[in-house]
Design brief:
Elements lengths: L1 E8 L2 E8 L5 H6 L5 E11 L4 E12 L5 E4 L7 H6 L5 E9 L2 E9 L6 H8 L3 E11 L7 E9 L3 E8 L27
Antiparallel strand pairs: 1-2, 1-5, 2-3, 3-4, 5-9, 6-7, 6-10, 7-8, 8-9
Amino acid sequence: MDKSVIAAIPGHWLIGRLSLEGTRIQEALNDAGTDFLRLSDVEVHAPAKRECVSKQPEVIVPKCKLEFAVIPTSEHEAPEKRWNNRTARAVFKAFVTVGQCAISGHLHLPSKPADSQYTLVHQLGRFFALTEATFSFSGHGGTQLGAPLLFVNRDLVSCLHVDPVQPDVGIGRSTPDGGDVQLCSPHGSPL
């Protein structure tokens, strides 16, 4: 199964498809057996200009250069695996900076962290998920973008803050039909 993904690397966005072959995106990102991701049907975009600069049938991306990956759909990529791997998680609001990007979202952890350093060192995998994420790039007019799911490269985090989520915050929203959520700016314009 292929999954749409937007890979943020220094200076560019790669919009393409990631072949999962029965694994979840987070498993593919955290797989120690390979240091690369292979994307197909790729559009290379320059975020500063918001235009496609190249189209490639396939690219490889070194995971060490991948700042974060945006999953622009609320549909889970492996529902059977998700159901069988359910574990109780507490939800916390998080703020992260990576590269030229500031990201806010919900961080799902097995327990309340003692502090952000403990969380970064002991509770997060190499790529960790933020749900209901918003992000913006410095120098781009402060335009905030949103995504239902985003994976951040822990090794490239330059700032992390974790707060408990207030009880009235909704978690896990999706479209009523379980369909795709289009990646849009807060003003409603699609990316």
